[in-house]
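Worked example 2:
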Amino acid sequence: MLTHKYNCLKAVGYIYFVVLIFSFLKSAAQQDTTLLTKNSRDKTQGPVIDSSKQWDVIDVLKKVFDKESPDSARNKPKKLVYSVMPAVGYSLSTGFAVDITANVAFYTNNNHKQNLSEMDVEAVYDTKIQKILISRATIWGTDNNYKFVTDLRLEKYPVSTFGLGTGTSQAKEDPLVYSYIRTYLTAYRKIIPGFYIGLGYALDYHFNITEAGNVDKTISDFQKYGETSSSTSSGATINLLFDNRRNPINPLNGGYASILYRDNPTLLGSDNNWSELQFDFRRYFRLSPRSNNILAFWTVWEFTTGHAPYPDLPSTASDMYNNGGRGYAEQRFRGKDMLYLEGEFRFGITKNGLLGGVLFSNAQSYSEFQTNRFQKVAPAVGTGLRVKVNKHSDTNVCIDYAAGLYGSRGVFVNLGEVF
C-alpha cells in the first residue's frame, strides 16, 4: 500500500495541506481504474462502487474554482493515476520539516485483470539534519504471474532510541545520528492462484553512527550490546506469500500472508552471521457489499538469531512503510524478537466517499535485553480522519491521532491506508 508516515509527537505547531496531481496519460481501456466497473463483482472484493459516483479533493476544487469544466472529463478511465502530498510541520524532535510524498497507481495490462501496481517516492528535509529519500514499488505482471517489490533508501537520520525491550523508560533516551543505505529487491513467481514464492537480496548499511548517550548518564544498551560506528547486513531472502488483495492502497477485502527468511552471512559482506524469520499476516472484512466499512487486522512476528547489528534489530515502525505502532515514535522500542498486533475499523462519513474515519488500537512487545523473554506490552489507541484525494486509485490521506504509554502521543499522516 502507498503509505507515508509523518510523526508530530510533542508537536508545537502543525500545518498540513494536500495537493493532488491526477492522471494525464491517454486512456487504455474502457474500465474504471478503481478496480472494476459499477456492476462488476470481484471474487475477493465483492461489488465495487463506481468511482464516477464518488468525490475526491479535486472534485471539490473543481466545483469551487472551475465550475465551467465538465465533470465527465475527470471520470474517464486513466492508465496512470498520480497523487502528491506535501506537508510542512514542526516538532521538538525534528525542528521545522518539509516533506513530499508522491505515488502512482496503474495496471500493467490493458485488461485490468491483474492486481493494481504502485510506486511511491518520498523526500524529507528538516532543520535538525534529517534528510530522507525513499523509493518503493510493487509491480504485478500479467495475470498476476509475477510480482516485483523494491525498497530503496538513502537517509541521514537522527533518532532517539531507548534501549532494548518494552520496559525501557524515557530516562534511557539515547539519541543516535547515522547515515543509512537500504537496498531490498524481491521477485515472486506464482505457484497457484494467490500463492507465490519469492527470492531476493537485502542490504542494510549504516555508517557515521554517533550517539549522545543516555540522558540519565548511565551506560546505554547500545554500548552494552556492541557499539559500532558502522554496520553492514547483506543477505539473501526467501519468501512464501499469499496475496489476493486487488488494491493494496486501500484493500476492501481479502488477505495477505508472508513468511520471510533472511540469512546474512559474512560471505556476502555482513559484519556477523545472523538471520531473521518474519511472519506478516493481514485480513480485511468488508461489512457491507455496498459500502466501504471495513474491519482490518494486522499482526507481525519477528525473530532473530545470531548477533544482528543494533540498528537492524526489530523496532517500532520497522515495517516497509514505517507505519506500525501508531502512538509511538519510530524506533521507540527495540529487541532481538518482536510481537505486534493491530486492529482497525474503517467507516464512511459521507455517502460520496469524500470523508471517512477510523478507530484503531495496537500492541507491541519486544524481548528484554538480559532474559530475551517477552515480559511487557506497549498498547496504543487512536482515531483518525480519511480524505479521498484520488477516487480512481481509491487513495486517502489518513490523518490519525494516537496515544500510548509514558505520555507518548502524536499525529500520524499517511498517503494511503496504514496497512
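The radius of gyration is 21 Å. Confidence is low (pLDDT under 50) at residues 1-47.
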